[in-house]
Design a protein that fits this description.
Blueprint lengths: L5 H5 L2 H13 L6 E2 H8 L5 H11 L3 E4 L5 E4 L1 H15 L4 E9 L2 E7 L5 E7 L6 H5 L2 H4 L7 H21 L7 E5 L2 E5 L4 E2 L9 H17 L2 E2 L8 E3 L5 E3 L6 E2 L5 H20 L30 H9 L3 H16 L22 H25 L15 H6 L1 H20 L18 H11 L3
Helix pairs in contact: 2-3, 2-4, 4-15, 8-11, 8-12, 9-10, 13-16
Bound molecules: adenosine-5'-diphosphate and magnesium ion.
Adenosine-5'-diphosphate binds next to strand 4, strand 5 and strand 6.
Length: 454
């Protein structure tokens, strides 16, 4: 997906207001009812509908009318919210070229006011795996738990927390600068992924250094779990930096030994093939140190607790860890899933758009609409053949087909909004729209104050 940051420049305060309203709604709606968006954003004279059209045109939102009329954020929309927040906080000023694309992330250079260039990683959990998982009816039945916003945000938080901790313990990792939503900003590594390196001055030494890191990690109670030539960067002085931490696990994980051995094996295999280092073939028994120098997991003196204590301090909880792990492992096993209610954190606060009061308003919406949602869920459980709303960007083509119809509908809703505003009505109901419940006008006026900064 292309991140056209030029669009960012042309987005108005109202555009961001509505985008944020959709994000708020997504805390408890997979597709946020259009009318709820309007209620949260509260632009004058039906302005929300006009803005929705613009956001849709720029692919920041996806429209869905399969159950009721509503919208969800696209990755691009979520990117823009995170980027806007980072810019507001003064973390960086501009987004530059894309420097990396992983299977579940996009990495860009970003420029700070003083000219420093940093790296920004946008997590995209669910991008690759969704089509595969989609065929699993069982999984889809619990699709509310399959929320890419939630998972990508967790991955970013975990990555940030690990990077910070590892740096504090003297590991060669990028410097963690800031995180927001699914976005992590870190120092730019001056080097290349090992996979791109054809020659080394001193392959034995680099090999030793890298292997030592795997052992040191285990001594600190951690296993990288994706320690390979793609996630090890090396510079012109052959200094090594490791990256990419969302899949790390504790040494007390039930598959710890397997993950550790796999990391070690990757390094051995790569150096044997690429740099012709010779080792004896691996023996399968893991008792005692191998003759070929493979570190033995059971022989390492491991200090546990590192993960739990330091990560808990960063705000990354055991529940977060479990949710993320279920997803990551679920990809391989296509099995289990989380049934937990999706809890997106209060990122909106940091955009300076949303404050405590509005989160409370949104909480009221959740309580007020719970029964209604349950009913509609039951009524619609039979239409599981319909395309799923969280289906990556693939529905965007369908969206174009429906553009004309949607424009008509939005215009109509807008006209009605204007009409009801003229009549001094507070709200209006449309045929297949979500019915607003539990409205708290006091909260609404507070949210207006919060939002008026845009
Ligand atoms: P993924 O989790 O998707 O594999 P990575 O964190 O491994 O993402 O990043 C993908 C690629 O982006 C890396 O292989 C590397 O080329 C580049 N990259 C990531 N982080 C940095 C960084 N801090 N500095 C420079 N390049 C980076
Ligand atoms: Mg990687």
């Amino acid at each position: 997906m292309k991140l056209d940051v030029d669009v960012l420049r042309y987005l108005s305060k109202d555009d961001f207001r509505v985008l944020t309203a959709v994000e708020m709604g997504m805390r408890n709606h997979e597709i946020v009812p259009t009318e709820l968006i309007d209620r949260i954003a509260r632009l004058k004279r039906g302005g929300t509908y006009k803005v929705l059209k613009n956001l849709l045109k720029n692919k920041l939102l996806h429209h869905d009318s399969s159950k009721y009329d509503g919208f969800r954020l696209t990755y691009l929309g979520y990117d823009f919210l995170a980027i806007k927040t980072m810019v507001n906080k003064g973390v960086f000023q501009a987004v530059g070229r894309q420097i990396g694309v992983g299977k579940e992330s996009d990495i860009f250079e970003v420029a700070c006011e003083d000219g420093t260039i940093l790296a920004m990683k946008l997590h995209r959990l669910g991008r690759v795996s969704f089509r595969a998982v989609k065929s699993k009816r069982d999984y889809l039945r619990h699709r509310s738990s399959y929320n890419w916003l939630y998972l990508s945000r967790l991955a970013a938080l975990k990555e940030f927390a690990f990077m910070k901790s590892l740096e504090e313990h003297g590991f060669p990792v990028p410097k963690a600068v800031e995180w927001n939503r699914h976005c992590v900003v870190m120092s730019l590594v001056q080097g290349y992924p090992l996979v791109q390196v054809k020659q080394l001055q001193n392959p034995e030494m680099v090999f030793e250094t890298i292997l030592n890191q795997v052992v040191r990690l285990a001594e600190h109670g951690l296993i990288h779990c994706d320690f390979n030539e793609f996630n090890i960067m090396i510079d012109d002085d052959e200094k090594v930096t490791m990256i990419d931490f969302p899949q790390m696990v504790s040494v007390s994980h039930r598959n710890a030994q397997m993950y550790f051995d796999r990391d070690v094996e990757c390094i051995f295999k790569f150096f044997r093939k690429r740099f012709n280092l010779s080792f004896q073939e691996s023996t399968d028994d893991n008792e005692g140190p191998d003759e070929d120098g493979r570190p033995c997991f059971s022989a390492i003196d491991k200090s546990s607790g590192f993960l739990d204590k330091e990560l808990a301090a960063s705000g990354f909880t055991k529940k977060d860890e479990n949710d993320l792990e279920r997803f990551i492992e679920g990809e391989e096993e296509m099995g289990t899933h989380s049934d937990d209610v999706v809890e997106l954190a209060e990122d909106m606060r940091e955009t300076n758009v949303i404050g405590d009061e509005s989160l409370q308003l949104e909480q009221d919406e959740r309580n007020g609409s719970k029964n209604e949602e349950e009913n509609s869920e039951a009524a619609e459980s039979s239409d599981s053949e319909k395309p799923d709303a969280s289906d990556g960007e693939e529905n965007d083509e369908n969206m174009t087909q429906n553009d004309a119809e949607l424009t008509k509908r939005l215009n109509k809703q807008r006209r009605r909004a204007i009409a009801s505003a003229r009549k001094g009505q507070k709200s209006f109901a449309s045929r297949n729209c979500y019915k607003a419940k539990g409205s708290k006008s006091a909260h609404n006026s507070k949210i207006q104050k919060q939002l008026s900064g845009w």
